[in-house]
Each structure stands twice: as C-alpha cells, then as structure tokens.
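Key idea: predict the complex, not the pieces.
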Amino acid sequence: MPVVARHPRKPKPRWQRRKDARPEEIVAAALDVFVEHGFAGARLEDVARRAGVTKGTVYLYFKSKEALFKAVVRQTIVPAIAQGEALAQAFTGSARELLERLVREYWRLVGETALAGIPKLIIAEAANFPALTRFYYEEVVTRGHRLMAGVIERGIKNGEFRKVDVMIAAKLAMSPLMHATVVRRAFASCMPEGFDVGKYLDTHIDLYLHGIAKH
Amino acid sequence: MPVVARHPRKPKPRWQRRKDARPEEIVAAALDVFVEHGFAGARLEDVARRAGVTKGTVYLYFKSKEALFKAVVRQTIVPAIAQGEALAQAFTGSARELLERLVREYWRLVGETALAGIPKLIIAEAANFPALTRFYYEEVVTRGHRLMAGVIERGIKNGEFRKVDVMIAAKLAMSPLMHATVVRRAFASCMPEGFDVGKYLDTHIDLYLHGIAKH
Amino acid sequence: MPVVARHPRKPKPRWQRRKDARPEEIVAAALDVFVEHGFAGARLEDVARRAGVTKGTVYLYFKSKEALFKAVVRQTIVPAIAQGEALAQAFTGSARELLERLVREYWRLVGETALAGIPKLIIAEAANFPALTRFYYEEVVTRGHRLMAGVIERGIKNGEFRKVDVMIAAKLAMSPLMHATVVRRAFASCMPEGFDVGKYLDTHIDLYLHGIAKH
Amino acid sequence: MPVVARHPRKPKPRWQRRKDARPEEIVAAALDVFVEHGFAGARLEDVARRAGVTKGTVYLYFKSKEALFKAVVRQTIVPAIAQGEALAQAFTGSARELLERLVREYWRLVGETALAGIPKLIIAEAANFPALTRFYYEEVVTRGHRLMAGVIERGIKNGEFRKVDVMIAAKLAMSPLMHATVVRRAFASCMPEGFDVGKYLDTHIDLYLHGIAKH
DNA sequence: TATGAATGAGGATTCATTCAT
DNA sequence: TATGAATGAATCCTCATTCAT
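Result:
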C-alpha cells in the first residue's frame, strides 16, 4: 500500500487490499454464512459477496466449498485453542479462583465472539464431516476438558474439592457454557429482551463451586 | 421375505395402500434424514426410500420439503411434551427427589431416543426457520424450564434449597442434559469406547444438589 | 333416474348419474379446462374434479390425456358441423339474405357458446396435434368456407355480387367472425365494459355487402 | 466446422463470453419455442439449445420461465409498435391510400415475420397471464386500432368514406389480417400448396374500400 | 364401474465449479 | 490476481398414468 499515490489519475481504489488479507476475509465471511445457513445451505456467492469479492476469487484460495468449510473451522479454532492454553499456563491462585476465571474467560473469548458459531457448526455438520469432527473433538473439546480437569484435580489434591471423577466434573463445569453458547444464537430472537448472561454465569459458578466444595 | 415362495403366481403388488400409516412412516424416516444431514442437505429421495415409498408419495402427504420438516419437528415433539408434563403432574416426594427424577426421566425419554435429534435440528436450522424455532422455544424449552423451575421453587419454599434465581437454576439443571443430548450424537464416533452417561448423570445430580442444598 | 326412490334408506345419491352421461360430462369439463389452460397446462385432476369424478375415472373412458383432448375437439365440433350444414340446406332467399343469416347464425351457434373455445384450442395446439388440426381444417374450416363460397357464387351468378374469387371472399366474410370468437375470450377482462358485438356484426355485414354488391 | 483443422492445438473453447448478445439470442429462441409449444409445453432446455447455450445460462438472464415468457412478448412487440406508429406518422395521401398502405405494411412487418407468433401466443396464454394480456391489449391491440381508426375518421371527414362507427370499422379493417396471421401458422401444413396471401390482401382491400366508400 | 394411493419420468430451478477474459 | 459468464449435475416438485381396493 503506497503511502504516496504514484498514479494520481487512477482515482478508484481508495484503499488497496493487501493480498494476504484476502483468505482471512473470505474465511471470516464464510464463518458467518456457514453458521447462519449450515454447510449445505450456504451459498458461495453469499460468502463471496460478504467478503467483497466474486465467486471466482474464492476458488483462488480454496479448492472447494468443503475445503473452505474445513479452513473456517480450523483457522478459527486453532488460535482460540492456543489462546486458551496460554491463559491456563498463566493461572495462579486457588483452584476455585482458576475455575471461575476459566469459566469467565471462556465466555469472554468464545461465548460472546464470532467463535461461538463454531460449536454450532460442528454439531450441525458432524455427520457430514467426520474427520473434521474428530479433529475438533480432539483438538478443542478434549483439550478444553483436560484443561478444566487439571484445575479440578488440583482442587481435589489440595483439599478444596471433594473427590469426584475429574473428567466428568470437568465436562459438567463446561457444559452449561457450551450449551449457552450454542443455544443463545439459536434462540436469540425468542428470548425475553434481557436474558442476563452474567447472572447465568454467576449462578453456575456459585452452584458448581458449592457443589464440588469439600465442605 | 420367505425363503420359499409359497404363492409363486401372485405377482407381488408394486405397492400397498397404507394411507393411514404413511404419514407417520414418512415423518419417522424424515426425522432420521434431517437429523443426519440437516434441512438443506437432506434429499427427499432418501426420505422416501427410507420410508419405503417413492418421492411422489411424500408429496401426497406434505406440500413441500419445508412442510415435511416442520411436521417432523412438531409431530415428534408435541407428544413428548404431553408425556413430560403428565410425568410432572404425577411427581410427589421431596424437591430433591423430584429433581433427580426429572433429570433421569429426561434422559430416558429424550436423550436416549430418536427425540434427541430434534434439539440438534433446531440448533442447526434455527436461522432458517424462525417461526418453527419460536414454536419450539415456547412449547418445549420454556415449558421444560418452567417445569424444573417449579420444582426448585418448591425446594426453596420448603427449605431444602438455597435462595437462587429459580429460572436460571432451572436452566442450569437442564443444560448439562441438553448439551449431552446434542453432543453425544455429534461425537458418537469420537468418544472413547465407553463414555459412561450414567455416571455423568449421577455426578451432575450429585454436584447440583450439593450446590443448591440449603446447608 | 327413478322418479320414485325405491331404496329410501340409502339417502346419499339424490340424483343418480346415468352411466352414459359420464363421458359427455368429462368431455364438457375437459373442454373448459383445455380452453383455459391449453393442452400441456391442463391438469387431468382439474378436469376430473370439474366433472365430479376422480382422476381414475377419466381413464375408464379415455386412454390418455391426448385421447381426451382429441375427443373434446371431435365430439364438440362434429355435432356443430351437422347443425351448420342442416342450417345451410334450409336457406332460401337472396344471396344477401343468406350471407347475413349465416353470419348471424355462426355467432349465435359458435361465437356465443362453449364451442367458441375450440378454435382457440386448435390455434394454440395446432403444432402439437397435426392430425387433429388437419381433421379440423378439413371438416370444419374448409366445409365452412365452402358453405359460404356457395352463397357467394350464387350471388355472383344471379347478379347480386361482383365477380370475385369466391373462396377468398368466403374467408373474408368469415374471418371477422372467427377473429372475434377467438379474441373475445382472450381479452374478455380487458375490453371496455360494453363492447357491442351486435354492432360489430351489423357493421361487418353492412360493409361486406356494400363491398361485394354489383353496383 | 472447418474440414481441415487449421489450429489443431487450440482446444476449442467450451463457451464464449457473449454477455451483450445473449439475452436477445435467448429471447429469439424462446419466441420460437413458445410459439411452437405454448408456455406450459415449452421446455427451457429446448430454448437453451436453440440459443446455443445451456439451461443454466437462461437463468443468468431471466429469473424464471415466466419472466422469460413475458420478456419474449414485451421485447418482441414493443419495437414493432414503435415501428408501426412511426410509419403512421409519415403517411400522406388519401385515406384510401393510407388504409391500403397500413394493411400491406402490417402484413409485411408482422404477418410474414417471426412477430406473427406473438398474437398466437397471447391468444393461447391469455388466461394464464392476465397482466401480460392487458399490457398487450393496451399497448398493441388498442394502439393498432386507434391508428386505423384515425385513418377512417379522416376518410369520413374528407368525404371519402361513409359515416360508420370508426372503432368498429377499424377492427373490421384489421381482423382479416389478424386472423390470417394467427391461422396461417396453425394450418400451414394443411393449406393447399399455394394459398395466395397477396390475393387475400388485395381482395380484402378491394371489398373493404368498396364497402366503406361514400359512393 | 369408481376410487384415490402410489408411481416415476420429466421438467424447472439452483448452485458449486470452471474458464475465457 | 480477479472477474463473472457459462456450465451441468443435482434436486425439488408436478402430474399423467397405473393399479390395488
């Protein structure tokens, strides 16, 4: 992108698109469209339009609709995983605090962002994309559960928590979040004006920690 | 199919008149196909074949693919609702017991049956079928939550449970079930041979009741 | 149709359909439907419903849609032809009078009746039913023209009319009628409330007879 | 197709970009097919093949079969109307001469060209396309009649013609032409080798002018 | 004879994909 | 690299026709 316009008579492109941004823009557009209509229901034309390009251009970067779909899931979720795990590394403090922190961060980083569409997509298309589903299950679900399981295990070890099956307890810590993530989009227009997500999280943390507490 | 043809001269009827049975058979077949592939990805031909009829027959009973889809959701869910509420009426005993009973019954009646496909369908197609989604939200989700909320309120009143926001607490009692319902199908082939649902339910009940208990 | 009901307990069929009437009823219904929608656009189901029977019944009397179509044209037009020629036989008086009489009778017997739909049908479907078209051309068009040509020839012979090509003059005597027949249906809803057909006929006769008159 | 391939390595393009030419080509092809088979009987595949494209291409330019049909009528007839009226403006000379000229021009511009198919189409499909029919009636039929009516009125004013209802007389001047237009296609294969259209027109003009002449 | 459920071929329409420009 | 015209396979849907009742 030239700082100084070298061809002043060419007035059109006020802002030049950096080549490298294209694929990301297309993936971002595709995420929206796939989430809204599902894989089969999504039209590449809509993806292209939303990305500000034409159908042909999509094929410059992605071999097929299927390849684009996979890219959407992988490229969107992989950075999120890294972010999640980095966060976990940095955690200090009691298991209770860590658990609460993880729950709130999940919501902040996934539940409220465009990422929230991915779980819905996987749920909807799992039968049609087994390999992708397996990838997601192993790289996201399981990893997420392990993260949480580690926290719970620590809490058991240091006497904060009761002795429970840690993997199951981890799932139970996450499932109200996952479910809210998925369901909120679906019922967005049905839910009473202000369903209070904050209170939902607070209550979940409260009930869960009370439930698992040693005492 | 008899190994020995007993009436060789009877030239096997090309089709049977089954007027009354047909619609249900088609709806049942369609439930499977829609759950597996989503609305857009489902082929009417597959529905027909699975129902043992031809494409044309589907159109004798349903005006369009969309009409069939709506029928699948409504006809499948409406009896389930009735069943659920009837069950609730009959409940007696402590709030703790009722809650546990409701959780286990939900799993028995929905989580483990073909009905489990409906929540997935709604999640996947909510954006494409707003009216149907609203119907489902009001007639199923909200009703289910109210049922559970009633139990919790009763527990609070009679001193079994702590004072919490009853609607939110109701959602939190259900969401691990809902989520498991949806996710189990998606990750069926990924999950380690024996993920123990029974233990998952037990642990949920245990943690939840501990969490909400007065003392 | 029994004048006295002999089976008073059977309350349904207030009027019994005489078997022999069925085909005619179906043909009459089919005429309407074919005229309205054309051959390809007509649905046998509509024909059946309008005839008060079911689709299957139509096939008891007609081998196929095509056969029904041909029957409609032939059965409707054949009696009309006979009627027309009988009328012609009976004509007496001057050629002028005969011509006027023929014009008015044509309108009365064809232009204003359900028969008027047939010319439209033939025009619309000629390309698809060459044999039927040829039949119509020879048995109806040509015969009609010959009838009129005979009158004109007589007028020329007896000095009422100028010497003209009789076949062409015959066509010209008929074409405003044929055209009005066809066009009136098409533009029925467009034409100003009261297009005066009577005046149209009067003027045609007036101009035509003036045009062909010897003096 | 050259007998000798001159550039054997050039792998013949599967298709050409012809954006501007396409719509007209498709409309022209569609005119033929619709005229031949009617709206319902026409197959888009045939239209496409005749236009040298594939089915999909038709949908690049026309939203539906119905839209294509309407475009055929409007685009084909509108230029013809303009042409007709321009011609009328330029007319000079006696009313008799004008009338004769109009009749002959109509035949030259419509009766003998592909345009002749349009009246047939309208007659056949009027019931199915009321809006289009109204458009045609107002923009073509009425306008044509007014044109002719003007000529006749002029003839009456300047004493060439008798006093008659001008609109009706206009219709009568046109109807043998319209009818011949429509009927000629229908009975093309039935009519005796050489039905002499020229003589038909001559005779019509002769009879009509005699009929309407003052003297 | 009459019914109408069931069939299945046929045609409209959509859209992922290709490719000349 | 980007475009978008063109393709054609896939799929919904209709309806003439058949046939068990």
